[in-house]
Give the backbone structure.
Amino acid sequence: MIIADASALLRRTGTRQLVKFCFVGASSTLIDKGTLWLLLSVTPRTPWWISASMSFCLAVTNGFVWNRRWTFRAREHGSLRAQYAMFVATNLVGLMLNLGLTKLFLILFTGQLRHSGGNPKAIKVLIASLAAVPCVTLWNFAASKYWTFRPTAAVRAGQR
């Protein structure tokens, strides 16, 4: 019974899209956190949130390309430029969520609101940032599915 329910669930378009979105998100997270780790290691005096913003820029482009082509198959749903602008806008909200949650987790992990003498240890920043990922994933998926890559009226009419 459970296997049949899981099989039926996986046949649903939204479920398949969520699974693909998570795979794309995993690759973007590797790019984001790998770049963040590198920046924190190479430029330790740069504030952690600047390094996090820079690594985000690389990851968001990766996510856009793969979500547009593979997850939502949205190449015919609108212009590349408009979709990219919408994707960046929704992911900027995701970045703000990530930065806010990362700060919250850093406070919980270190017991400090402010870190005198620079950044907390890189590993703590990385773990705090990863802890924020599930919440941000839900926001980014919903925004991508229902706004950025939503089929246009013409495409929806042609599917009937």
Q: What stands out?
A: The longest helix spans residues 80-110. The chain has one domain: 18-152. The mean pLDDT is 88. The helical segments are 2-11, 13-42, 48-71, 80-110, 122-148, 153-158.
